Fold this protein.
Amino acid sequence: MTRKMQMGETSMTDTFDFIVVGAGSGGCAVAGRLSEDAATSVALLDAGGTNDSWRITTPFGLALPYSAANWAFETVPQKGLNGRVGYQPRGKGLGGSSAINAMVYIRGHKWDYDHWASLGNQGWSYADVLPYFKRSENNADFDGDYHGKGGPLHVNRLRSDNPVHDIFHQAAREAQFRIRDDFNGEDHEGLGSYQVTQHKGERWSAARAYLQPHMGKRANLRVETGAHATRILFEGGRAVGVEYVQGRQTKQLRAQREVILAGGAFQSPQLLMLSGVGDGEALRRHGIGVVHHLPGVGKNLQDHPDFVFVYASDYPHFVHSSLGRLPSLLRAIQRYRRERRGLMTTNFAECGGFLKTRPDLDVPDIQLHFVIAMLDDHGRKKHKEAGFSCHVCLLRPKSRGSVWLKSADPLAAPMIDPNFLGEDDDLEAMVAGFKTTRRLMETPALRALQKKDMFTADVRTDDDIRAVLRGRVDTVYHPVGTCKMGTDAMAVVDPKLKVRGLEGLRVVDASIMPTLIGGNTNAPAIMIGEKAADMIKAGMRPS
């Protein structure tokens, strides 16, 4: 690393081999792996903080408002949702969304990655990506052909010891759904209890896996928090650095080899556009000079549309939305301090699985998350009663949305349009998903827990279902696709994740997914970071 003062600037400019922008799941993984080589210098920038407080590390902290770690974006009004504005929480700080998510460890189906490869993305079939999932993983419960031991990402069964798991499994049997022990093997159809990214009852974010063990120990790794990237620096068609705001200062870092964007599905395309990379006409409308016309930037946004069944219940092992029942909460805290077990380790979405709404489907088309609390408007609306919820989301929607700039102000939030239920086929598929999930909710095992059906008691006909879907569907927090990988004219990166038409610039996060995978997106984003690090290292070796 070299350090020099630029005349007329108020900050220093440092030079690194690689600059990674965004310390989310992909960014932590790629930065951690690249910095394993002491001869390779890596700088990692993130606009948020260190995310090492108990609110983050204690899984139950998920239920507590903590705005410092959440960008808390909103969508534009959604035509398919009666014009409602949706909520888009995104992680801010080290670990990104893996620091605020529900910790469910899911990779997606083999079909998803083979589909990526069939679109022309050589090297991204399931056989190609499985080694990276395994390399990242330290699975306490499973091994064999589909699981890894000794990786930096701890994966294990929940330690909440909640007896509702047995009730959920009984309901699955009563509804004649198969019980699935492992959702990350050859197939994942069925219902059961999820594994989580935890270690000894604590959240294990991508930062705890790939970054924090090495901070202060690897001289070649520099991590800057509170550093909001404002533009990529170019010389001709090559990315050579990043400008960012930290405190009241505008600073720059220079990259000798590459700038790597890992800001996620909203902020990676935003930074590209702010830097003059995107649809040229749209950029000029904001007064941004066009460095490279790349019309696919910000397009192809995909997310899982999600509906939540909500029930009040007297069952003592559900969480009160107001965090009442103080004596039991205090006992849970005391147990957590002693054993790192019990309620404080809950990820709330403790059970769930993958189902087909039609037997002729090749792969499951819906996913369930069974939550041990009443979840209304992402938990932002509170109720007097305790209760439970069950999400159902559509895994491979046909609707496509987009992300674009509100203005040339780099500190302004991006404009986000997931276009939920924009395609009629998605609405009808969600109707089928509603019916399939209700079949589970109406089993004797789960009916016995229900004191009151909060939102669907009077929903009977298909038109009733369509109405309640349009009135209540929102995200389940899996946006992808806005810097899609491919070889067509709308692709933003190639299969090596290099930005097409430019040098020294890659994108390494969920935005590169050409299509949405059938499951939660944290583990796949980590896989993308692992695979990108290998591709980058291979390119550094002498030919």
Observations:
- The domain at 159-193+305-394+421-472 is CATH 3.30.410.40 (Cholesterol Oxidase; domain 2).
